[in-house]
Amino acid sequence: MNSAAWTSPPVLADDLGITRQGVRAWLKRHGYPKDDDGFYRIDAATEARMRAHFAARKTPPPLGPCSVDECDRPRRSRGAELCALHHQRMSRHGTLERSLPGQNQRAKTHCPKGHPYTPENTYRFADGRRRCRRCRLDRAAAAKRTRATPA
Ligand SMILES: [Zn+2]
Ligand SMILES: [Zn+2]
Question: How many distinct structural domains can be found in the chain?
Answer without folding.
Answer: 3
